[in-house]
Design brief:
single chain, alpha+beta, 4-stranded mixed β-sheet, two-stranded antiparallel ribbon, 12 helices, 40% helix
């Protein structure tokens, strides 16, 4: 074989090796798990053999004391386990973390009436009504204008006001009494706003929700908050009460709707501030506010 032929053969061999290597790299790049995550900040990375995925705090926190507490709080939470556990085992693993807190649930249902000016502060001495997202006087008037709403309804979860889920600060929020009545114990879901069977729920001239005989849909700015609350409650009290599973409080038992709500209404600064205040009073944190993408690992 002359030199020119040898050179051509060598070039062909090198090209073939290059092409095969490139294909293999592309195949590796295209591998994925069934879970998706939101864009991370301040990420803690978890890996398995085929992918690198990140979980992260929802937003940078400027309160150094709060940030320190958060870092300490999640110190023993092994994120590397997330891709190795099945749904039920993962729920129990997260439950162990949020149950292990000093002074957990030391306030009762009656106490909450006088804590909302701090828990849901509007910054002016009043409180923010949950579904309406409007300021209101924090003065307790025996429920005539505002009262306490169980976001994960008691009748759907199988617990009472004097059970832990019945006075958990993450689950019990201040709401205008008329809106609380419209919510009743209905499940959450999306509704056809043009349907004759759907009623608008208004406050101060603004539509804040829609409802029919069995479903309640809050306004978009509250949907993510609702999602992260019911994620927390169904995890915190998993197997503790009769029917307390996430699907009990949803019209869509495939979880698709509630996961969409979690993504379309991201964690706000107010949610983060409230998480910090509740931690100081109740002892634990809503992990789905700190790591909203965790819901995809459990129910996605």
């Amino acid at each position: 074989m002359n030199n020119n032929k040898k050179t051509c053969v060598l070039i062909l061999i090198l090209c073939l090796i290059f092409l095969l290597t490139g294909c293999r790299d592309n195949t590796t790049t295209l591998k994925s798990t069934k879970h998706s995550t939101l864009t991370p900040t301040n990420s803690t990375t978890i890996t398995n053999s085929t992918t690198t995925t990140a979980l992260s705090l929802s937003s940078p926190l400027t309160d150094k004391e709060s940030l320190y507490n958060i870092e300490q709080y999640y110190q023993k939470f092994d994120f590397n386990k997330l891709l190795t556990l099945g749904t039920n085992d993962l729920i129990e693993y997260v439950q162990d973390l949020i149950l292990d807190a000093p002074g957990l649930l030391k306030y009762d249902y009656d106490d909450l009436r006088y804590l909302y000016d701090e828990l849901d502060s509007d910054g002016k001495g009043g409180l923010i009504l949950f579904y309406a997202q409007e300021s209101h006087s924090a003065t307790w008037d025996k429920g005539n204008t505002w009262n306490r709403e169980h976001v994960f309804a008691r009748s759907l979860g199988g617990f009472q006001k004097d059970d832990a889920a019945g006075y958990d600060m993450y689950n019990v929020r201040p709401t205008i009494t008329s809106i609380n009545s419209a919510r009743d114990n209905k499940v959450f879901g999306n509704l056809d706003h043009n349907s004759s069977s759907v009623t608008k729920v208004s406050y101060n001239g603004k539509v804040v929700a829609w409802t029919n005989s069995s479903v309640f849909e809050p306004q978009d700015s509250v949907k993510g908050d609702v999602a992260r609350i019911v994620f927390y409650v169904s995890t915190m009290y998993y197997k503790k009460y009769t029917n307390l599973e996430l699907k009990q409080v949803l019209s869509d038992t495939t979880y698709k709707t509630i996961l969409e709500w979690n993504a379309m209404d991201p964690v706000s600064e107010d949610e983060i501030k409230r998480n910090n205040v509740v931690q100081k009073k109740q002892g634990n944190r809503n992990i789905f506010v700190d790591y909203p993408e965790l819901a995809n690992y459990i129910w996605g």
